[in-house]
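Researcher: Structure for this, please.
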Amino acid sequence: MRNNDFGRWIACAAIAVIPVMMATVAAAQAPVPPPPLPQIAPALVPSHVVDLMTADGMAAFAAQWKTMEAKIVEGPALPNAMPAYKTSYDISPHAGEAGFDDSSWPAIEAKGLADRRGGGKVSFFWFRANLTIPAKIGNFETAGAKAVLTAYVDDYAEIWVNGQMPRRAGIPSPAAIVGFNIPNRVVLADSVQAGDKFQLAIFGINGPISVAPANFLFFRQASIEFYK
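Model: Predicted structure, token format:
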């Protein structure tokens, strides 16, 4: 009798565990949601422009630039790689991700974006800042304006906004690499309000990569454009 009771107890416990295991497997297999769709920034003359390479410009958003060099790191090949390939390559850190902690990174002056960074040839740098939209910048009222980030890195850049890089394969994606020494113009929001926050993470790349040029990485322009 006791054995039968024990057997029934085991069976009930197993049945109770099965839904939990199925939910765990389903969660593990759930598809990753796609990144936000890219938008094309206006080609019109902006209503107001704030230069993020000046102290006054950064102060308008209560923001501070931080930077850190990124490295290429070696790791094992992915499980489905062809047998001949044993190694993969990644970058470190992945500082575009939401919640990334840059508290230990050095802060730089806004004008320091123009400094030539890295040892030359193939190099990568992250630049991060947290912007808060004010109600007014000078006499310009920001409410309802479309906000666009222009990041012009010599030579390429990828732009992350609030932990996402807006993009789609096969269509223009201004947050991805757009060309050799061509600025990225990324729409932050169609209609901002005072207090809106934007975490910017700009991944700068010295290139062309296969050339490994004898020069350095720097910004030519960084600004926020408002359109009404």
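Researcher: Any notable elements?
Model: The first strand starts at residue 48 and ends at 51. The radius of gyration is 24 Å.
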